[in-house]
Amino acid sequence: MQMKPLIGRDTRLCMSLSARPGNFGSRFHNRLYDLVGLDFVYKSFSTTDLEAAIGGIRALDIRGCAISMPFKEAVIPLLDGLAQSASAIDSVNTIVNDGGVLTGHNTDYGAVVDLVADLDRAMSFVVQGSGGMAKAVVAALGDSGFRGGTIVARNEAAGRAIADRYGFAWAAEPEGKGALLVNATPRGMTGPDADVLAFPQAMIAACTVAFEVVQYPVVTPFLKAAAEAGKRCITGAEVATLQALQQFVLYTGVTPSFEQVADAADCARAHP
Fold first, then answer.
1. Maximum CA pair distance of the chain?
2. Is the overall model pTM greater than 0.85, yes or no?
3. Were both Cys, which of 3, 13, 151, 244 would link to 163 (CB 3.0–4.6 Å)?
């Protein structure tokens, strides 16, 4: 491990904005700063005044900011521009500040692109959800060349809007078959939805790959059922790590080693 400089006037600050801040991002980034020896600090925040918070990023020269729900779309008018990853889905999860110019990115999109890179593009898929993460998943699949897909969303207007953008189908409830099943809803997340199975058992039994975006718990009821059925599983923990890594690179310009990333992810999950 390299020696990290003491915090001083030249220390760069990165942050996150969320309605309910968690610890994963702070633990992950700060651990990597330690491992790589960077003069950075990362801190999570919440706000009831998004415009003032974004103004503070610009005014205080804060290098970068992760954006979580419910701010991923509301933040767009407050920025100076969008990278392709964010403009493709009208959703921002990362802000990079270059001398007062704030650009929105979406590293959820990039993480999904990487995680499906080795899958057969001819696979049919079903994505459940219509929020910012669902948009990132559907855009990543569409841009990666997947063509046979269904978007499941109880909100018909939101679901159809996502589906129509990429020429996919829409359904109100999960049904039929999909070789790739993706849960982009809170179903299975710690809390009131903890015991909810994201897809019917019959769909899980018929799939090839189960893809979960829920980060906590690492093994949701959906992934547990898929693993017991012998399916390949892609976890929300993998999504969280990859998207956080892409943020780290955007903020610092440094690409840590695989071992350093694994260490930081383990540290973050060990201290939730």
1. 58
2. yes
3. 151
